[in-house]
Amino acid sequence: MRIFSNKDEIHTLCFDDSVVVYQNEEEEKSGAERFLNFIVNTLPSSNSLTKIKKFSLRHQSRVPLENDFSRLVYGWIWNAMKQGGLLELHLECSRDQFDIDRVLLTSNTLVKLTLSGNYNFGEDVESLFFPALKSLSILSVSGLGFEEYSRLVNGCPVLEELFITEDDGGDDNDWPYVPSWSTSVESASIRRLVISNDLPYNDSSKEYYDETYFKAPSLVYLDYSSVVFEDYKVVDLVSLVEVKLDLRLWVSKKMFGDVTKLVAGISNVRTLHLSPDSLEVFHFCCKSMPVFNNLLSLSIQSSKEKSWQVMPLLLSSCPNLQTLALKGLLHRVTNKCGDACACIPTKKRCACIHKKKKRKTCCLWTCQVKVLEISEYGGSFQEL
């Protein structure tokens, strides 16, 4: 537990029992009950004048929640909201699913909200409204359907930041599908969007990766990490300035999915960051490369397991590029690197030596950039 306070105001109040390890089930139950009682006894009463600015609760739900925990703890959060002092609320519940009380779905002062774990919105989502909320984080919320998600985003008229994370939580069981709420974002106010989809995927789950939809006219920054979807619908991303992409191919079928519309939809950006996997996705799953007329800074991360086939086409599509940053030079050697590098596949190396054929000029040498940054250079034979 952490408390930062002054006379009439508690700035930060954090409770976390996730780091506690118990020896057996009986000790776990007893310890969990003591933890809940401690929270209730620590929190200010409903008639207290003490205001809380930030409240964080992370609990494992080790004991049944049909007790007074819901009424006392979550009821107190509502009282803090009514007092007008609560600005940040961060809730994380693992294990058993917990129903979000309707009183937590409306606040006139809350500016930052984080939900993580097994929370269920039930039927009270109709009244959801956060008129002051500017930052919303949805982190692997298992009980959140598409309707609830849509109501949540639509109930935040001045929302500026949206963070969406979906993973399996380290479980061994394969997740059968990707939640629909993590594949669709529509908001007129969002300026910063971060999406990370790291769920297990295989051939049987392809039907759930049919389309991703983006419509955010005020969006300035996009950080998107996911396996490739079959198609993308991108509408009105005219304000984009910076994009970070980590797109991954399907292991069983590289040619699955089409990112053509996604790449075209972000072609007006000024700064672009690409992961090693994204380079391969651009090569295998992008039917046509748009011209990035506004692109001034391009950052590319390399990996010895991923190839550079798309590099010549990508660089030639950035006529006004000023800064090129390469994080590592090692990449998988293929016969389709074009003129992006001097690497030659082993099978063709001997033939090139005997033919004494004049080699093409590397596009990295002729690229009209003012600044070339190379990091993580090891001086190995493959890099020279």
Automatic annotation (TrEMBL):
Which superkingdom, per the lineage? Eukaryota
What Gene3D superfamilies does UniProt report for this protein, alphabetically?
Answer: Ribonuclease Inhibitor (3.80.10.10)
UniProt cross-references to PANTHER family, sorted A to Z: RNI-LIKE SUPERFAMILY PROTEIN
What this protein is called in its record is: FBD domain-containing protein
**Per the UniProt entry, what species is this protein from, by scientific name?**
Microthlaspi erraticum
